[in-house]
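Worked example 2:
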Amino acid sequence: MLFDDSYKTISENAEGIFRDKGSKFIAFAFPVRSENEIKPIIATLRSEHSKARHFCYAYRLTPDRSVFRINDD
């Protein structure tokens, strides 16, 4: 079988920080069900972290993996 017919997701917001060679990378994860929920989250994060030099994000929705977006700034 090419794809498993079950998948895991997160149940609550999560945050992580990684530091390397003087850089700080902040990661956020949010449980969402539609693309409409994502845009306000991204806008809020951009305003809260306005000094960030790079703002990368990705999402994949639906069990068939057909709704997705990747932005590596």
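The longest strand covers residues 14-20. The two ends are 34 Å apart (CA to CA).
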